[in-house]
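BUG-470 | component: ligand-complex export | severity: low

The export step for S-adenosylmethionine jobs runs without errors, but we want the raw record kept on the ticket for reference. Input record follows.
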Amino acid sequence: MKPKDIFNDVEITSSTVDGLGIARIDNWVVFIPKALTGDVADIIITSKKRNHVFGKITELKKESGQRVIPFCEHFGLCGGCSLQHINYAEQLRIKQQFVEDTLKRIGKVEAEKIFPIIPCDETTRYRNRLDFAFANRRWLTNDELNTEIKATGSFAGFHMPGRYDKIIDINICHLQPEPTNAIRHFAKNFAAEREWSFYDPVKYEGFIRDMIIRNTTTGEWMVVVIFGSRDDEKISAVLGALSEKFPQVTSLHYVINTKRNPTIYDLDVIHFNGKETLTEKIGEVSFKISPKSFFQTNTKQAEKLFKAALDFASLTGNEVVYDLYTGTGTIANFIAHRAKKVTGIDYIADAIENAKENSRLNGINNTDFFSGDIKETLSDNFIEAHGKPDVIITDPPRAGMHPDVAKKISESGAERIVYVSCNPATQARDIALMAERYRVTKMQPVDMFPNTSHVENVALLEKKVQGVVI
Ligand SMILES: C[S@@+](CC[C@H](N)C(=O)[O-])C[C@H]1O[C@@H](n2cnc3c(N)ncnc32)[C@H](O)[C@@H]1O
């Protein structure tokens, strides 16, 4: 098996959660982009690794019954919605299988009950936040190479996956409701017509640089425009025009970022007009969202996720609950009415301030929030001071928990641990570290991001007593 080898009538027998079809040829596993279970295709081998190869479809001979026409003109180039050639029911099946296989393979988890994945009602326009880049260089597709189309100019869109130096010029993105595309096009055209410089990601210079657009289910919109240099007159001109054109933008801000890296978390956000924050509702709880705050990006599905976590926590009102990796205290505030006390920890001090403010905003007075690295903060002294937890909810980032944190949790004596994860592989690894004292009794996968490879999984771990579950 080597690159450029050609195979005819290859049957695709399974699909990965990343949208690759899998075929087996001569004891080799072949991964094929844009192929899916049930396809039959002629393929060419494109690259070879130690244990597997990659191939490309040259001719699709028979289409899988799960195939649908991708809705986005940028499919295949933009890394965003890599499963959009697969119908939604099949996407859900692939995600469910992925969660079950990953937990079994890595964590040796045999949950007593695995619920069917919770689907998303809306499979497009479900995101409440998009981060766009403006740039003077764009990626050219193979079809565009050797044509009149230029790679330099004034563009706005997303970075090419794995490429910091070029962006894909996005016409329509289907991930957020309108006017997200209209706002981006307006800012791009306003700057381009005036021949303002677009950011050069290779030289790290240029005026108009990035844009964050957020919205809420309550109908508010926030726009943050990031400029690569300061020019007050131009900033007022573009933001003033944007504000006039889009009265639905309730909160308008800007940032001057002259650093090489695009993050704004260490920079001042300057309020231009409107309200300073957005207010979102999940269930009965309101959340204030400031420009730098993390907030779950699919609000309606977040509510389903939090309900699943609350259900697994089986709270009666008498429990001391720890909400680890609490962020802006979203889960803590959502569940507070069902607990005696909720203690949240996160290492982002601003997020902790937001969490406290969100409790105040909702008249919740049985929460406590602390900023610090969980590995250091969750000490014996901390547990003594804040009470032994009856239930621990943990929602770490993709990298999962530090082994010391998994150890500490498993020694905490909590009756139940509800592990919310956006990465089943690290969740499985962490669960394996707690297997001596806890066993997984229930799992609930949730599809937060249709058409993408992402899947969330909530696992309930119950304390074992001398090797049995109580
Ligand atoms: C997946 S988010 C969870 C947010 C929150 N549960 C929610 O639903 O809005 C993970 C959070 O973990 C925090 N975090 C990551 N590593 C941490 C650490 N070592 N110590 C404390 N917090 C950490 C991040 O700041 C982030 O807020």
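Assignee comment: Attached the raw record above. The two ends are 53 Å apart (CA to CA).
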